[in-house]
Design goal:
alpha+beta; 3 helices; 31% strand
Length: 89
């Protein structure tokens, strides 16, 4: 799990996700399957506790608490879905 804190770290992970273009599929709102560049599939989970946004990914980097491109790729889809859900309420 990592907590979104550093804009620079996040920007690097976003840039990598845009370069690699992993495939992201929603399992449930806040839970996503992301196909990595090596063909493995990783599970990314999003949660908000108060003002803190947390993302967890079961890739090696995510398990060490690093911001991974799988998480940022899933975050992009999650943000779009959250905006859509908010607009329909």
């Amino acid at each position: 799990m990592f907590i979104l804190e550093s804009k620079t770290q996040l920007e690097k992970a976003i840039a990598k996700a845009r370069k690699v273009k992993p495939i992201v599929k929603m399992i449930a709102f806040g839970v996503y399957a992301v196909k990595g560049s090596n063909g493995n599939s990783y599970t990314v989970k999003m949660e908000r506790i108060g003002n803190e946004k947390r993302i967890s990914c079961d890739c090696k980097g995510g398990e060490r608490g690093l911001i991974c491109h799988h998480g940022t790729a899933a975050l992009e889809l999650h943000s779009t879905l959250a905006k859509h859900r908010a607009a329909t309420i």
